[in-house]
Amino acid sequence: MKQIIRITKIFRFEMAHALPGYNGLCRHIHGHSYQLEVTASGEPDNRPGHGGEGMVLDFAELKAIVQQEVIQPLDHALMLKEGSMVSFIGNDSELLGKIVWVPWQPTCENMVLDFSRRINGKLPEHVQLCSLKLYETDTSYAEWYASDNL
Q1: pLDDT confidence tier of residue 74, bands split at 50, 70 and 90
Q2: pTM score, two decimals?
Q3: Which of 47, 86, 89, 113 has its CA 20 to 30 A from that of 38?
Q4: Domains in the chain, start-ordered, CATH in brackets?
């Protein structure tokens, strides 16, 4: 009988964004301390003597994927919608050196969709991404579930 297990790893990063066209303070550049919960599932590899014996996926491997695909590109970055700002004076300066331009409004909801695509493409074949939960504040988050997106 197949035994599926879910594993979750939590990540934290700092990022700023702005929501152009939003009727509120979030239309201005502001930052958040994000928390991302990544849950994957699969059957534990119970081959005797295998380096990952008993694991669905080594937490270190999951960490490396999320670090490469999400954390490194976005930590301490400014995420803006393409075309939302005509230009910045000294756009290549150290002050504004890490701007991430995206084709969608950089809401928590759209970020979690983007993260699902980034992570899904890098997981081993025997592991499935189950869910993502992206906290924008301690009390506000967006969730993505694979089961909702079949």
Answers
A1: very high
A2: 0.92
A3: 47
A4: 5-148 (3.30.479.10)
